Structures are given as C-alpha cells and as structure tokens.
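F.,

This is the one I mentioned.
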C-alpha cells in the first residue's frame, strides 16, 4: 500500500470511530432535543418566575382628586388632593408564599428528572429491539446460505440417483420461507427506526448506530429499599408538593390576619383673598395608616382545609407510588434472573444443536437418507439462535428498567 493509500485508510478509520454513537450518546441527544422533555424543563423555569411574583409587595396606590366645588377651610379653599399608599401583609405572609412557590418549583424540577429518566428507558426499549432485529436478519441471512447449500446437496444427490426429488423440494420450500421472513424483518426495522428517531426529534431516516454485542452483568443486584425510595425523583416531587401544601396552609393562616397600610395625602390649598392670616394658602400634608379587617372567615378556613387535604393526598400518593416502585423492583429483579438463566441455557443449546446438525449432515452426505432430520435440526438451531438473541435483548431492556426504578441516571 502506498503512503497516500495508507493515510486515506487511516482517515476513514478515525472518521468512523468519531461518528460511531453509543447508547449513552443517544441518551444525551434525546435529553437535549426531545420536545416533551424540553417542555418539562420549560415548565420548571416558568415556575421559578412565580417565586419572584409571590415574594413581592402589592403595588402602591396613587390617586388624584380635583374639587369641582372647592372645600372652604380657615386657611383657604382646597383645590386638589394627591394620595399615595402602600399595603403590607401580616408578618411572614410573603415568605410563606415564597416557600410555596419555591417548593412547587423544586417539585417540577424533580418531575423533569423523572421524565428524563423515563425518556432514557424509552430510548433503551427501542434501541435493544433494533439490535434484535439486526441480529435476527444476520441469523436469517446465515440460515438462507445454509438452506441454499442444503438445496444444492439435495439436488445433486437427486441428479446422481442417490437422493429423492422430495428432499430438494423440501429444501426449496424452507428456503423460500426464510427469504420471506428476512424481508419481513427488514420492513419491521424500518418502522422501529422511525420510532427511535422520533424520540430523538430527528428525521425518521437518520442513521442509527447499533452496538455489535450485548453484555450480561455478572454482579448481583443488591436490594436496598431505602436507597431506591430516597433517590426516586417522582417520590421527591411528591414530598416537595406535600411540603408546599404545608407552606400553603401557613400562608392561608397568615392571609386571615390583618394587613396594614401606610400612606400620605397631600392637599393643594389656595390663599384666601378676603383676608391675610398666618399659614394662609398653606398646603396640607396628612400621613395615614390603614388596616384591613378579615371578618369574613369562610374563605380563609376553606383555604386552610384545602391545604390540609392536599398534604394528606400527596402523602397517600407517595405511599402508593412507593409500593408500586418496590413491586416493580421485585418483578424486574426476577426477570433479570430468569433471562440470565435462559441465556446460559440457549447458549448451550446452540452449541449442542450445531454439533448435532453437523453429524446429521455428514450422515446424509454419505447415505442420502434422513434429509428431513437435517432440515428439522436446522430449524431447531434457528429457533435457539433467535431465542438467545431475544433473551439477551429482554435482559438489557429489564436492566434499563432497573436503572429507571433505581434512578441510576440521576
């Protein structure tokens, strides 16, 4: 190879390495581009703006009045009045409202984290079946090659007079079934390909890199209920909403207390023209204090009761979700153990069946008998190869679900 050719090959190799994408890369793409997840984060950002709103005092009130008929006073007629006032809620009311908004915002962030983890699981739940489809296609291609060789052998034996035409026809029928099955698998992959890209918010025909192999974790999964419950974003969100309801109860209680206001009135006074006197035409400055009296208690009692019921509701939801979470953990833990056992079994079955087929094929090549046994054992081998791939895929999907349950991606 020339130096130019070597450099070109090296460039192609490194370009392929840089363009290859792993499942973790697809997680990142989905987290950045999925519109549903972006909407969750935008919802969280919007809730942060609520904190500033509820922590602010009500706007001051300014008013202006003009006396169409001047009010005569000792120092002159009043012509106009300016008023400026500011209301202040009871001590701690603003901070209580701020606590409600802050806790609700934190709850929305935890909901965003849960949506992100759920999206990762959805990506895995399509990624691994895509691996399965591609592996099944490879298996089917290998099966077609074997069946073509079977057909060639059977036809040759028939032509030599040492075999039957039925053997060649049976091989051809099985071969045609395999060709149709391969076409079905290819069509099915196109649909899943589009669904996968939809999660990533990409064009439906964007290229997808799939791993060549799937692994099985050797380390056992240790059951730690406290860890699962403490790390779960959905439970954290419900806890924060319960705390927000408690803060809402405090805010409702404080809203039922008086609010105070301070203000000032400034009155414009004209001079008297009929006489001269001290402070003639002097404008009036009058400080004011106001207080609201919350005597209609029904709405405040209703708001307090509402907050209490919300706390109870969120605590019940937490308990229900905790039970569901632990139940799902045990189910997935069983599925992982089952698939691990099946993977080991199918691997042994593939090896044994392959050896059996080699022996039967050798016997058929020598005697020309028992061709149907050769086809049957090939079908059995195909079945074990397919189920092995399916078991590997189901194991990895269950492992991704376990990641979601245990919030390993947080």
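My design for it:
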């Amino acid at each position: 190879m020339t130096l130019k050719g070597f450099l070109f090959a090296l460039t192609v190799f490194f370009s392929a390495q840089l363009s290859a994408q792993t499942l973790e890369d697809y997680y990142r793409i989905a987290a950045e581009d999925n519109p549903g997840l972006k909407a969750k984060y935008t919802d969280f950002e919007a809730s942060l703006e609520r904190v500033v709103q509820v922590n602010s005092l009500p706007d001051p009130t300014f008013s202006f009045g003009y006396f169409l008929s001047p009010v005569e006073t000792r120092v002159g007629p009043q012509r106009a009045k300016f008023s400026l006032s500011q209301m202040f809620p009871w001590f701690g009311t603003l901070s209580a409202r701020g606590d409600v908004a802050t806790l609700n915002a934190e709850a929305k962030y935890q909901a965003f984290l849960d949506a992100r983890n759920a999206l990762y699981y959805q990506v895995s739940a399509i990624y691994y079946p895509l691996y399965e489809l591609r592996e099944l296609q490879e298996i089917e291609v290998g099966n077609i090659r074997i069946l073509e060789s079977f057909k060639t052998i059977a036809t040759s034996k028939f032509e030599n007079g040492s075999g039957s035409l039925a053997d060649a026809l049976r091989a051809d029928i099985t071969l045609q079934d395999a060709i149709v099955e391969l076409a079905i698998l290819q069509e099915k992959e196109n649909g899943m390909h589009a669904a996968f890209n939809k999660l990533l918010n990409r064009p439906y025909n964007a290229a997808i890199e799939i791993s060549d192999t799937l692994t099985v974790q050797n380390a056992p999964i240790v059951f730690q209920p406290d860890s699962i419950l403490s790390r779960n974003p959905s439970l954290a969100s419900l806890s924060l909403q319960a705390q927000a309801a408690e803060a809402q109860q405090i805010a409702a209680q404080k809203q039922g207390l008086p609010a105070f206001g301070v203000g000032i009135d400034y009155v414009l006074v004209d001079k008297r023209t009929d006489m001269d006197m001290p402070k003639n035409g002097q404008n009036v400055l009058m400080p004011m204090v106001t207080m609201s009296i919350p005597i209609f208690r029904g709405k405040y009692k209703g708001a307090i009761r509402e907050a209490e019921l919300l706390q109870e509701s969120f605590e019940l939801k937490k308990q229900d979700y905790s039970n569901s979470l632990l139940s799902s953990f045990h189910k997935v833990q069983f599925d992982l153990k089952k698939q691990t056992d099946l993977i080991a079994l199918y691997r042994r079955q593939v090896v044994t069946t392959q050896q059996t087929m080699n022996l039967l094929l050798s016997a058929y090549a020598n005697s020309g008998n028992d061709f149907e046994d050769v086809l049957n054992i090939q079908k059995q081998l195909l079945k074990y190869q397919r189920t092995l791939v399916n078991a590997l895929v189901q194991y990895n999907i269950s492992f991704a679900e376990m990641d979601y349950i245990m919030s390993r991606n947080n």
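The CA atoms of residues 161 and 209 lie 50 Å apart.

Talk soon.
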